[in-house]
Specification:
By secondary structure, the protein is α/β, with parallel strands linked by helices. It is about 35% helix and about 15% strand. Helix 9 crosses helix 11.
Length: about 300
């Protein structure tokens, strides 16, 4: 049930206690089996080991929706335009007429500033929203010329960024989730096991209506065609996700895991792939939700529906 305010904005009632986690993984597609695919032969990579023409066994009753990342535009899907699409619900490659790699250009930034999922949720009266990743002091001291789609989406809604102090207090997670890369950057933080990090992220998700978490090491490994690193990192990522799911109340929480394009599932090529990406949905309303998702532009509207109107 929803209530229309006098100013025509819509807010949710106390009856809607749903929570959503959008778990974004850069460069994860649904590939074929073979020596080019690091998931093939990894026995402990569930739920991420998903192959074409196979019905995957997804822990915690997750549903896999093969999702189109090409969005009707020729060429290989790329990060800036794909992430913009995921984070806004706007088919960005269609609007700019191309897939844009790396960081958003001014045209994509305009789309994000107007349609950021964080902004759309705020406009619906949902204020308990967070980007769970951690920013280091370096980012604020010397702001990079190019910022990621996620950073722009957070800024569009005027949200504060989590910093290392938030991570130490258990309110944020680093993008490698173990903190090893944070230590390499000269910050001091305890190393976390994938299980510890999964519990921390679960507690963040439990105390917000909407949480975004971004993981992009998969895309870097794909471009480097580093099979050994893929075999080391992917089981850890899977452990992180399994503990996260174990610690969530899936009767009130919906988890959507998705990607902007394929990459790591085919290490025989340095480029992104044309493969569909797996959107994996868990928890509340996951069957209804799965029916709504065809391509990357469907993610934001689906999340909005879960958190405002409900799906039934
Ligand atoms: Zn890439």
């Amino acid at each position: 049930m929803i209530i229309a305010r006098a100013d025509c904005s819509v807010t949710e009632t106390m009856e809607n206690d749903s929570r959503v986690l959008l778990f974004f993984i850069d460069g994860l597609g649904i590939g074929t089996r073979g020596p080019h695919n690091p998931f093939d032969g990894l026995s402990d990579a569930a739920p991420l080991a998903i192959f074409q023409n196979e019905t995957p066994q997804v822990p915690f009753a997750g549903i896999v929706v093969p999702t189109d990342a090409c969005l009707g535009v020729e060429g290989r899907p790329q990060s800036a335009s794909g992430q913009t699409t995921i984070l806004t619900g706007v088919n960005a490659p269609e609007i700019i007429g191309a897939h844009k790699q790396g960081f958003p250009n001014p045209a994509l930034l305009d789309i994000i500033r107007e349609h950021s999922i964080f902004l759309q949720l705020k406009n619906k009266g949902i204020e308990s929203i967070t980007f769970a990743n951690t920013y280091t002091r370096k980012f604020f001291e010397r702001r990079p010329r190019w910022i990621s789609a996620t950073t722009a989406a957070v800024e569009a809604a005027g949200l504060r960024f989590n910093v290392v102090e938030d991570l130490l207090a258990g309110h944020a997670v680093y993008h490698d989730f173990t903190n090893a890369m944070l230590l390499e950057r000269g910050e001091s933080a305890p190393l976390r096991t994938p299980e510890e990090a999964g519990s921390v992220l679960a507690s963040i998700v439990s105390s917000h209506r909407f949480t975004l978490y971004e993981y992009f090491i998969t895309d870097k490994i794909g471009h480097a065609q580093d099979y050994g690193e893929a075999q080391r990192v992917l089981p850890m990522l899977a452990r992180f996700i399994r503990t996260l799911l174990q610690n969530l109340d899936l009767s009130i929480t919906t988890v959507l895991l998705t990607s902007d394009h394929g990459n790591i599932e085919d290490l025989s090529v340095r480029n992104h792939t044309l493969n569909p990406v797996p959107t994996i949905v868990w928890g509340r309303d996951c069957h209804l939700l799965a029916q709504r998702i065809r391509n990357l532009a469907d993610i934001t509207p689906t999340i909005l529906a879960v958190l405002t109107k409900g799906l039934s």
